[in-house]
Amino acid sequence: MVVADDFFFPGLNIPGNTSNPLGSRVTTVNVNQLPGLNTLGISVVRIDYAPYGLNPPHTHPRATEVLRVLEGTLYVGFVTSNPADPNKKNKLFTKYLNNGDVFVFPEGLILFQFNVGRKNAVAFAGLSSQNPGVITIANMVFGSYPSINQVVLTKAFQVEKKICKNPNMVVADDFFFSGLNIPGNTSNPLGSRVTIVNVNQLPWLNTLGISVVRIDYAPYGLNPPHTHPRATEVLRVLERTLYVGFVTSNPADPNKKNKLFTKYLNNGDVFVFPEGLILFQFNVGRKNAVAFAGLSSQNPGVITIANAVFGSYPSINQAVLTKTFQVEKKICKNPNMVVADDFFFSGLNIPGNTSNPLGSRVTIVNVNQLPGLNTLGISVVRIDYAPYGLNPPHTHPRATEGLIFFLFNVGHKNAVAFAGLSSQNPGVITIPNAVFGSYPSINQAKTFQVEMKVIDSVQAQF
């Protein structure tokens, strides 16, 4: 079915239409336009450029390009791939090309061509693939469908996502904000109020990398521990005295602790809080205090630690928080509701009932029985043993010291013991119950290297 026209394409003598924002047009002749190229590993393009027209940064994922300038002068270049050393930058190779000049763009690298003259320019290029493909960087990153999440793009390009206003629509009020002379309302549990002037309140801060806040503090008011993920803060105290500080990031040595830097600031004093670190300000006086701060971002963001950790929606799993902060999940009682009985337990003088197969009974006094133990990291138990009674192998996962242990009464009479544990809620895992009495049951034959009928017999006891 092959005919001569399968090897023929007319039209590369016709200039492409460059009346578009970029001022360029690529006329492609690959296997889709010229079937005879199939399997031959080559294709060709004609590129027309209006005065100052641009063939924008792009890459050919499957081909090297060899460009030959026919008319005009082009400024061309390509950028190398990421260097092995992360401290080094991608290298740009550029050249001015005139009529008859040839330039090679290696496969897969980002390249561009720009007409630097006042007249039209023309170039032809051969590509080492019958279907080289093209990825225009701007279109791919900012014009995909669906679009890439703005959070991804702002972080990737280290910019804010606010769109610049049309210059023809800009007015003086875009540069103006009124109201930083007005005290903020500090009638809240923290006793502070931050009045923010960032790009959302003052549009012309867009791209300028700066914003400002006024912070009002009631007597003993607190701007609680927080961080600005995108900005360094420079604080200037206007009235009264503040106790301020920040904490360093995690040290390289895990045996060292994060370091706290603090300072008392008076009227006129300035203090710097580095970007991303946890900081706070506290009014130590009996009168209102005021401070102003500049931040090195048009939209610095703020993460209040207590709100983020304990007030998120949905909330962080309590198991995560209790392990992170090395506490139990019992909530402290309102101090105004505390009574003496919260610290009192009666009954450890009463023997436990040991009429069970093990011949032992543990009477527990932890935070569930004695609320006043909350956060104190201790609890107590009474253990009663019948003659030859056993407190079977078990472990306390949250108290000294987590090892498997047992207690056995070797005498002909009852025995009694008391134990303190280094947790308000130490927990207990009784090994036989956990291993052989779980629901659903665990298949244990391979673990204990015995036949299944032996395991079945043991599990039947639980």
UniProtKB/TrEMBL annotation:
It holds the Pfam family Cupin_1. This is Cupin type-1 domain-containing protein. SUPFAM superfamilies: RmlC-like cupins. It comes from the Eukaryota. Its main location: secreted. GO terms for molecular function: manganese ion binding. It is found in: Secreted, Extracellular space, Apoplast. Oxalate binds at residues 223, 228, 233. GO terms for cellular component: apoplast. Mn(2+) binds at residues 226, 228, 233. Residues 10-165, 178-333, 346-456 form the Cupin type-1 domain. InterPro entries: Cupin_1 (IPR006045), Germin (IPR001929), Germin_Mn-BS (IPR019780), RmlC-like_jellyroll (IPR014710), RmlC_Cupin_sf (IPR011051). Belongs to the germin family. Keywords: Apoplast, Disulfide bond, Manganese, Metal-binding, Secreted. It comes from Buddleja alternifolia.
